[in-house]
Write a structure and sequence with these properties.
42 residues, mainly alpha
Length: 42
């Protein structure tokens, strides 16, 4: 499993994608990470 930092680095290295597509992919990965992280409530 890759860390968040490693995944973002991989996305930024995808030079064959446009900046817009890289931003969309980074946003998607952020959303996936947030949905996987449990939210603690008191």
């Amino acid at each position: 499993m890759y860390t968040i930092k490693q995944r973002k680095a991989l996305v930024t290295m995808m030079s064959h994608l446009s900046k817009k597509k890289r931003a969309q992919l980074a946003q998607y990965l952020d959303e996936q990470d947030r949905s996987r992280t449990p939210v603690l409530t008191s």
